[in-house]
């Protein structure tokens, strides 16, 4: 048995010696090979001149990240991944990238399957950016993450899960108004003004809609009136939070009843018409920013997140705070919440990309133990 272990350790040492040098532990980004992993339909062009804002929005994150990596001196290859992991295996084996910059949000059309791609990267002993497989699995499952938060006594709205094909009876512990969304989908998929329901008939109708549109279970939770706040967190063991950000709904809704529908998040004309936008939160109760920072770090650790994440909160008029969900690997476009809040803290876009690469290079995956 001792000889077998010695042989394994010897092979591991040989493997480690053959792995290209990773990012250094400081912020100096040396030229290196970076494989950028994106969905096959989101491979960005080299130039966006002449494209409309709507066209650019489709691949804005991918374009921003790739361009910044190139400007930082990295040798970059973009892999548009569909449903074939063999392409990823070949890219890693043939090109031997120092690190993979993971921008996938789904695999084979299923949001929760991105965890399997990251697990595959770990099996290939390939360093990568962003969240680990366990953190992705937990955070993508909104019901499971809420159960974990409740176990840790972190305030989150009371909820119930309605699997597809099962008759739903409203639990006595839940009271209207209620909010209905998919238990797995993200980016406000399936969320509209009709997601907020005030009676049993509308609740039944909306649950059926979620089942049909997302082919997943419906999450029914009590709606929390108040301000919508975001806290961005970056790190592995040592965590840093960026300034509290707030989504302003403008004239689209009353201040306390607005919420991020798909239209609010992605329709530029709708945003301009109603004055919708996100910015640094102001006029917060004394001590709340520090409280949210500490709470965000607790949530980050409780859900086993790594790399970077954005946590969504609601602040009630009485000053109490509820966490709505955790978003692992959030949008990294220059104009989106994570990057703008980082910039407000002094981490401009080039610095942010270096931080994310450094964290990916330093993450202690199981094969490094």
Q: Considering DSSP H and I runs of 4 or more, what fraction of the residues is helical?
A: 25-40%
Gap between N and C termini: 20 Å
Structural class, from secondary structure content?
alpha+beta
What is the ordering of alpha helices and beta strands?
A: HEHHEHEHHHEEEHEEEEHHEHEEHH
**Which second-level CATH architecture of the largest domain applies?**
2-Layer Sandwich
Counted up, domains total 3
- Reported by name, the CATH topology of the largest domain is D-amino Acid Aminotransferase, Chain A, domain 1
Overall description:
This protein is an alpha+beta fold. It folds into three domains: about 30-130, Rossmann fold (3-Layer(aba) Sandwich); about 160-220, Dna Ligase, domain 1 (2-Layer Sandwich); about 225-350, 2-Layer Sandwich (D-amino Acid Aminotransferase, Chain A, domain 1), CATH 3.30.470.20. The protein has 13 helices and 13 strands. The protein has helices at about 1-20, 55, 60-70, 85-95, 115-125, 135-140, 140-150, 200-215, 260-265, 270-275, 290-300, 335-345, 350-360; strands spanning about 35-40, 75-80, 100, 160, 180, 195, 220, 225-235, 240, 245-250, 275-280, 305-315, 320-330. Helix 5 packs antiparallel against helix 6 (about 135-140). The two termini are about 20 Å apart.
């Amino acid at each position: 048995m001792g000889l077998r272990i010695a042989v394994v350790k010897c092979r591991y040492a040989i493997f480690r010696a053959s792995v290209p040098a990773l990012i250094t532990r400081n912020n100096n980004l040396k030229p290196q090979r970076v494989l950028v992993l994106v969905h096959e339909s989101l491979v960005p062009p080299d130039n966006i001149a002449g494209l409309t804002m709507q066209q650019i929005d489709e691949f804005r994150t991918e374009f921003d990240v790739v361009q910044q990596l190139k400007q930082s001196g990295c040798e970059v290859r973009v892999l548009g991944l569909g449903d074939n992991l063999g392409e990823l295996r070949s890219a890693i084996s043939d090109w031997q990238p120092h690190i993979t910059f993971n921008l996938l949000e789904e695999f084979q059309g299923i949001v929760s399957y991105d965890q399997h791609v990251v697990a595959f990267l770990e099996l290939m002993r390939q360093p990568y950016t962003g969240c680990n497989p366990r953190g992705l699995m937990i955070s993508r499952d909104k019901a499971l993450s809420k159960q974990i938060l409740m176990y840790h006594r972190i305030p989150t709205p009371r909820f119930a899960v309605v699997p597809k094909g099962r008759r739903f009876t409203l639990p006595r512990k839940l009271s209207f108004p209620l909010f209905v969304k998919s238990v797995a989908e993200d980016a406000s998929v399936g969320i509209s003004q009709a997601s907020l329901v005030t009676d049993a008939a509308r609740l039944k109708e909306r649950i059926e809609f979620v089942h049909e549109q997302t082919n997943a279970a419906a999450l029914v939770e009590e709606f929390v009136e108040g301000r919508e706040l975001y806290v961005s967190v970056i790190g592995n063991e040592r965590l840093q939070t960026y300034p509290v950000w707030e989504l302003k709904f403008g004239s689209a809704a009353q201040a306390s009843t607005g919420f991020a529908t798909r239209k609010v998040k992605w329709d530029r004309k709708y945003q301009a018409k109603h004055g919708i936008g996100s910015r640094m939160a102001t006029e917060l109760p004394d001590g709340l920013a520090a409280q949210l920072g500490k709470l965000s770090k607790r949530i980050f650790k409780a859900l086993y997140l790594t790399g970077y994440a954005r946590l969504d909160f609601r602040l009630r008029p009485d000053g109490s705070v509820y966490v709505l969900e955790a978003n692992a690997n959030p949008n990294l476009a220059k104009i989106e919440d994570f990057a703008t809040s980082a910039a407000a803290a002094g981490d401009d876009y080039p610095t942010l990309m270096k931080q994310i690469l450094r964290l990916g290079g330093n993450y202690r995956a199981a094969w490094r133990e």
